[in-house]
Amino acid sequence: MKVLIDLCVVPLGVGVSVSKYVAVCEKIISDAGLKSNLHANGTNIEGDWDDVFAAIKRCHEVIHEMDAPRIFTSLRVNTRIDKEQSLQDKIDSVKTKRGDS
Amino acid sequence: MKVLIDLCVVPLGVGVSVSKYVAVCEKIISDAGLKSNLHANGTNIEGDWDDVFAAIKRCHEVIHEMDAPRIFTSLRVNTRIDKEQSLQDKIDSVKTKRGDS
Amino acid sequence: MKVLIDLCVVPLGVGVSVSKYVAVCEKIISDAGLKSNLHANGTNIEGDWDDVFAAIKRCHEVIHEMDAPRIFTSLRVNTRIDKEQSLQDKIDSVKTKRGDS
Amino acid sequence: MKVLIDLCVVPLGVGVSVSKYVAVCEKIISDAGLKSNLHANGTNIEGDWDDVFAAIKRCHEVIHEMDAPRIFTSLRVNTRIDKEQSLQDKIDSVKTKRGDS
């Protein structure tokens, strides 16, 4: 089952800056061979359900190993069986509707 | 790795009522032997990471089999390594702070 | 416009324990005369759109005044115009479907 | 109070395609003079708290007027008082940490 995910990881107990941890997650996702796109409030990921969630679990494990005692993660999870849809398809679909061409 | 999850599953393309699908998820979670609590906007689940995410995957699979072409799920995922904490502990902690006793 | 909200406030830069801040939010919501229910991963709130969002803004203001330099809040926002629905109605609807009676 | 928001609006009871509604929200946000960026699972918005939430309320009102009986919105809300931070700053901060230059 293919899944499109929006991942936002917030480590707690490590001060206000979380970008160091997000950068590590980016690497884990990339090393897993998953397509992803960073945005200002998270990372969109595209792939097989098991692969994507294995990468997210790895993010939690590594961030705890780094030093974060607690992690709060917010996820949006999209699956559909009526058609194939990529992350780019979702953006293109909105752009077409608003008349970008 | 233990995880506390807040799961909110929204099937699309099946009309406005989603309670039938939430009820099915409740059964899947319960059958998996996981502790959970239904609330007005989701279901809190407590358990081992792999068991909890296997149940969530099963929810997506079954809801698609029922008839939903598309599913949007919103998750809050909490892990911590500084101490053991249950769903009830989290509620008790707030109640103590606000002086319920 | 009536709204049902699931609010989860996570202050950053104040250590791992956030229950003190959640307790303050509970009081702000209650003082605003809004119906709410605490659960393990957030607080469900029911009320008029403007009243509910004024209370959420007040939560951010007060938590910053307390000492938190940064706040990450996760919200689920439900509106519907086809029927009246309360927080309790949502729970009852699922319970009926799963056959609790 | 400045806020950075990640907005994901999901209308229910209108079939599986939601891009038409997202495009309308994009226009509402743009007409409100707010900076925003569309991504595959939402729209990041930057602005004053009251302006941003007024635009989100308007999105709900207009989508209901279009035909959607029910709307489920997922929001990530970021405020901070320790420093000024834009949507682009957040992305740049992660890119610097992962060594993009």
Write a brief caption for the model.
Chain A has 101 residues and is an alpha+beta fold. Helix content of chain A is 42%, strand content 34%.
Topology of this structure?
The structure is a homotetramer of 101-residue chains.
Chain A: E1 2-12, H1 19-31, E2 35-39, E3 42-48, H2 49-66, E4 70-80, H3 87-97
Antiparallel strand pairs in A: 1-3, 1-4, 2-3
Helix pairs in contact in A: 1-2
Keywords:
alpha+beta, 3 helices, 34% strand, 101 residues, homotetramer, four-stranded antiparallel beta sheet
The total strand number of chain A stands at: 4
Rounded to the nearest angstrom, the radius of gyration of chain A is: 15 Å
Biggest sheet descriptor of chain A: 4 strands, antiparallel
Q: Which class do the helix and strand fractions of chain A yield?
A: alpha+beta
SSE order of chain A: EHEEHEH
Oligomer: homotetramer
Which chains have the largest interface? A-D, 34 and 34 residues
Distance between the termini of chain A: 32 Å
Share in helix of chain A:
40-55%
Sequence of strands across the biggest β-sheet of chain A = 2-3-1-4
Low-confidence stretches of chain A: none
Net shape of chain A: globular
Strand content of chain A: 25-35%
Mean of pLDDT of chain A: 95
The DSSP helix count of chain A reads 3
